[in-house]
């Protein structure tokens, strides 16, 4: 009897040791990932102290243990089978599940290492939108990114395999136990292990479960990003991507109060006498400038020297200096510009035809007035379903790379210089009046545009800034060529960016200045008294629709979330989205709020206005989301 008791205890002890070994296994793998991340992105740590870098390995432990517990659940079930049967196949099943998880975790982290220099944030489940077009992913990434993705994935998988063999090496024969002892012992093992993993997964007994803010400790976002577990972050993002919990993340505000505040935001006299056009129905040309952040433009920021041609254009046009992108991706920017629809965190409405088809689009108004409508992009419009959005909204001609002639091109798209040449050719054969739109691409990674002598940026972010220099020169050549065409004298140009980008003076994707973009109205139809004028009112891409409708004699009320920026009485505000959060900007200041950590990242509102302005932002987001659900 004593011998059987010792056998039972020995077997239980052996199987229980798997629990701490599993947790230690994952902790070591996650820390190895942090080392690889730090090496590959070392330039990002220039402002991170050595002490903060070391502390990331301490503050990360709670989240690491949390995701390690989740990842250990399925292997735990295999271990239970192994305890019961002690066979080779149960041990193989355990190792197989564990190895598959290692591959999954390695793929997530290797992807994050590579995109972080460009995105400046951790990998989110929005990647699924990109993966729906794998050819676009391959072309957006340069060859070095593909190479390093494979290398890092391989290194992490190899380390995981080596540690598996070390931690869970072949065992000596298990002592045979009767089933009457084996069954309750196994259930005891499972119950105790499950309780341990449950507590670690939620971070303890406290009322509010652990979240990414438990790993935040530094004022530097790069250190915090390194501390936050990549797999946990990705999984948390996946819940929001599917909107399974998005209602829980929305601001807590009384519905009647939110309606009241939003009604007040749009409660101003709509009629006014400001008219900026010589005639009410000129041709209109939209140029959507990929990633043109206001912080990269000389006349709008402290970053000087990259945009001399655009800066000169502003002296001949009407420049809006405080316009904000509604999101950080191209499909969100395009739908906001043409449908006057603000963005919602973690939602790309262009990917949901059943909803975006219920929105109005500018081309529909222009077509009602007899305009031809055309949209052109030098890349693939499958990305974000941009092409589908424009086709659904009745654009008569939607053209992307598949319609371009055979020309030398970049990995992602045709160069701006060639896009503009084909753009002019299309306008030359179009019947007036027309609405033509071109979406540029040379300022998007991998920045493989033609090089010129003046593309020699000496400051930070040289690849992006050199692409801005190239695009600025192409824009000037485009307009000089437009001036030679007969339709030029009756054509209004609208220059607007799809979203912002990291710049030498805006290096945090979660701050409001990252979302400030240029909006310039330019051309012969613009009255002389408005040329060279700067308007500092706060607005967003979503306000372009109502602004143009008023000037063209249309009905701006068909764009209920858009406001007329030329109205002297208009209220100044803009909503933009960040990763799992949102930003709110008014003439009083601005802030960004991260939903999962429940923290304000960028708050410049004066103390006396802060509570009032934050409540307005909460109300606006609440009403936008309610409207989205009703579409």
Descriptive terms for the model:
631 residues; alpha/beta; 8-stranded mixed β-sheet; 2 domains; single chain; Alkaline Phosphatase, subunit A; 12 strands; 4-stranded antiparallel β-sheet
Helix content: 40-55%
Q: What is the number of strand segments?
A: 12
Ranges with pLDDT <50 over ≥5 residues?
A: none
Shape descriptor reads elongated
CATH class of the largest domain: Alpha Beta
Q: By CATH's scheme, which homologous superfamily of the largest domain applies?
A: Alkaline Phosphatase, subunit A
- pLDDT averaged residue by residue: 88
Helix/strand class: alpha/beta
Proportion of residues in β-strands: 5-15%
CATH topology of the largest domain: Alkaline Phosphatase, subunit A
Any idea what the CATH architecture of the largest domain is? Answer: 3-Layer(aba) Sandwich
Rounded Rg: 28 Å
Q: What is the strand arrangement across the widest sheet?
A: 4-3-5-1-6-7-2-8
What is the count of DSSP helices, taking H or I runs of 4+ residues? 22
Write structural notes for this entry:
This protein has 631 residues and is of the alpha/beta class. The protein folds into two domains: 2-241, no CATH class; 255-630, 3-Layer(aba) Sandwich (Alkaline Phosphatase, subunit A). Helices cover 48% and strands 12% of the residues. The chain has 22 helices and twelve strands. The strands form two sheets. The protein has an eight-stranded mixed beta sheet, with helices on both faces. A four-stranded antiparallel beta sheet has the order 9-10-11-12, covered by helices on one side. Helix 18 (386-392) links the parallel strand 3 (372-377) and strand 4 (397-399). Helix 1 (2-16) runs parallel beside helix 9 (179-202) and helix 19 runs parallel beside helix 20. The chain is elongated and about 95 Å long. The N and C termini lie far apart (71 Å).
